[in-house]
Design brief:
12% of the residues lie in helices and 38% in strands. It is mainly beta. It has one domain: Jelly Rolls. The strands form two sheets. Strands 1, 3, 4, 6, 11, 13 and 14 form a seven-stranded antiparallel β-sheet that branches. The chain starts with a strand and ends with a strand.
Length: 239
């Protein structure tokens, strides 16, 4: 059983943010409207926003992300319990990497593509310092971050498959799916086992899925980035 976001009627290709409401309601520039089947823009405090819009790319419906010294997300909330999900599949298309980007450093932690999966959990298990950081995030944004976030990225230099702890918060951990220039300027399709990846990244069993997002950012390197995202699909665990 698969969970696609959103479901679309007959013959139209499936795209995570390009539902009928999107194609019918998008303005002339093709910008995804707020609350398009639950998808919405998430601004980051003090950051210019990345522009997301619905387009076609190499024969596929896609979301184009264009960043100019900016950082913001396009996100949808989820409510999938453990056992209701197993794998996630998604696709991205990147024309070039960000020179000088380094996912392990605060001052250069940019990426042309990110797919973020948010997990719920018991925040009381976290250290006091982490809980205080969550409280600060809530004060700044009006909401608390997920208990844990698994992020899939493409980086200039790092071993494929490696896990990188976010320099700002160890509750965000990145798995490198692509490294270097191999595979640029074409669609790259990925399918990952979320349970296995979460265990490897965090050393514990995953909780419910609470959100999925994409993010293209170039604010730290004060540069530009362009990318396209295809469908995101969650596949239920085999019985």
């Amino acid at each position: 059983m698969a969970f696609r976001f959103p479901a679309m009627p007959s013959r139209l290709p499936l795209l995570f943010a390009a539902a009928t409401v999107l194609t019918a309601c998008a303005g002339p520039a093709g910008s995804p409207p707020q609350d398009a089947n639950g998808w919405h823009s998430v601004a980051l405090p003090g950051k210019a926003e990345t522009r997301y819009r619905w387009v076609a790319k190499d024969g596929r419906p896609a979301i184009e992300a264009r960043s100019e010294r900016s950082a913001s997300m396009w996100r949808r909330r989820l409510a999938l319990q453990p056992g209701d999900y197993g794998d996630v599949s998604f696709a991205w298309w990147v024309p070039e990497l960000i020179a000088g980007a380094d996912p392990s450093r605060v001052d250069s932690e940019d990426s042309p593509v990110r797919v973020l999966i948010g997990f719920g959990g018991d925040r009381n298990r976290l250290p006091a310092r982490t809980r205080a950081m969550f409280d600060l995030a809530e004060a700044l944004t009006g909401e608390q971050p997920p208990y844990a976030t698994l992020m899939y990225v493409w980086v200039p230099e790092a071993p494929v498959g490696s896990v990188i702890v976010n320099p700002r918060s160890d509750r965000i951990r990145k798995i490198v799916l692509a490294s270097g220039t191999l595979g640029l300027k074409r669609w790259q399709d990925h399918r990952r086992n979320l349970v296995e990846d979460y265990r490897r990244a965090f050393g514990e069993e995953p909780g419910p899925l609470v959100s999925v997002a994409i993010m293209t950012d170039s604010d730290n390197t004060r540069s530009k980035a362009l990318a396209w995202y295809g469908e995101i699909e969650f596949i239920a665990a085999s019985p």
